[in-house]
Amino acid sequence: MNEIGVVYRNVRRADSAVAAKLGALGAATVHEAMGRMGLMKPYMRPIYAGAQAFGTAVTVLLHPGDNWMLHVAAEQIRPGDMVVAAITADCTDGYFGDLLATSFKARGAHGLVIDAGVRDVRVLTEMVFPVWSKAISAKGTVKATLGSVNVPVICAGALVTPGDVIVADDDGVAVVPADLAQSTLDAAAAREASEGAKRAKLAQGVLGLDMYNMREPLQKAGLRYLD
Predict the structure, then answer these.
(1) Given a cut of 90, is residue 219 above it in pLDDT?
(2) Does the predicted TM-score (pTM) go above 0.70?
(3) What DSSP character marks residue 178?
(4) Got the DSSP string for 28-62?
(5) Beta pairing partners, 154
(6) How many CA atoms lie within 13 A of 111 on its CB side?
(7) Contacts of 172 (CB under 8 A, 6+ apart)
(8) To 5 degrees, how large is the angle CA 50–CA 135–CA 78?
(9) In 3-state terms, what secondary structure has residue 188?
(10) Using one digit for the tens of pLDDT, what is the confidence trace for 112-138?
(11) Can you tell me the distance from the alpha carbon of 33 to that of 40, in angstroms, rounded to the nearest whole number?
């Protein structure tokens, strides 16, 4: 699936306005709107609480213990991008720190998603540069082996194609294929409106048992109330 030693420079990105609207709706709503698809594994966590980011994917394929291609990827970042880094084999080394974050931020990146480790977390937090990773590690990396930039990758169990929409927050990381971005936004917005109406009813004291018409199915399933 993956090519090694290539950088694709002309990537068709999803519409930035659609990406922004999906980002505002959040990873959980977007994931549900896609039919419960496109969610990275739950070990991918933000390095600081309250982190929220969205953008179009610039993908990077890295090798264990080698962050060379992150420097190559920096040149391909456009304002509004999210860098998504996958590793060819399991690794938790600290691939990314404040120096690369400074470079990424200067290029207009909204954040990084990496299926490996990061370091310099205190400084990254002060910079308000959001990162989702599976580990935090002080262990550094080398620059010796070619990977690729802007090729399809599998990151934390999810397929990411360059230009896809990434929505990341405290709940996780969702990936929306570029071709499905608008239809997913439509479905997610409708879901959000529906949840708003339900939230208002619940706030008034209506029970989910009644709002969702659960009583009869529960009775048929054999639920009994004993006093």
Answers:
(1) yes
(2) yes
(3) G
(4) HHHHHHTTS--BPPTT-EESSTT--EEEEEEEEEE
(5) 159
(6) 25
(7) 27, 28, 31, 39, 40, 42, 44
(8) 65
(9) helix
(10) 999 999 999 999 999 999 999 999 999
(11) 15
Chain position carrying tokens 């879901």: 191
Cα 22 versus chain centre, distance = 12
162 contacts 2 by C-beta, under 8 angstroms: no
C-alpha 85/C-alpha 70 separation (Å) is 8
pLDDT surpassing 60 at residue 69: yes
CA distance 98 to 215: 54
- Write out the two tokens for 188: 């997610």
Q: How many angstroms separate the CA atoms of 188 and 173, rounded?
A: 15
Residue 130 CA to residue 84 CA, distance in Å, equals 12
What percent of the chain clears pLDDT 70, i.e. is strictly above it?
A: 99
Nearest Cα neighbor of 111 from 200, 19, 221 is 19
